[in-house]
Amino acid sequence: MPRITDPAEFIRRETLVxxxxxxxxxxxxxxxxxxxxxxxxxxxxxxxxxxPPFWAFAWAGGQGLARYILDTPELVAGxxxxxxxxxxxxxxxxxxxxxxxxxxxxxxxxFAIAASELNADLNDVSLTLETTDLTDADCPDxxxxxxxxxxxxxxxxxxxxxxxxxxxxxxxxxxxGDPGRSYLPTSGLSELADYSVPVVGALEDNEIKHxxxxxxxxx
Length: 219
What we know:
single chain; 219 residues; alpha/beta; Rossmann fold; 7-stranded mixed beta sheet; two-stranded antiparallel sheet; 26% strand; globular
């Protein structure tokens, strides 16, 4: 049987608090060594074959979105934000720091929700958080939706694209941050910004990723 564990306690124990390289105004609980944390997560839960701990890193797309939000606060000021596949909570934290009215973060990984809550506290902002797969649910109430690094996998992209189209049909503004992942759409995107973002070389094919922020049109 899997061992019962407290995700927040595990995260505090197994991570370090560091500033985000491309958004130094924000600090996160992050992994020191990617593979070590992955193995420890499996050991802690008594399960093998778990997904990587996406919540434990500041991925390139999320860093790009965070930087763009912090530099363009009028984008979110007074608005209701949805941080889809929130991971560490980086993008939602940036939105709240930039003056968003509220931010709801969702992720399918309960460890991501725990990490986002810890990181929000670390940065003196408040997020509402939920463990759920929104791609199979009704569209949430939001004015603007942020999606960082969601096109890394064919199956994930196949679920995300119809979901984003539903958001657009509801009149929501949708922004994506992506460093050229394999399944990033080749149409329906309007580029807003591009950055050279420092990342964890052990997880990427380079230590600097050319990362772009897009506004999504109908895909």
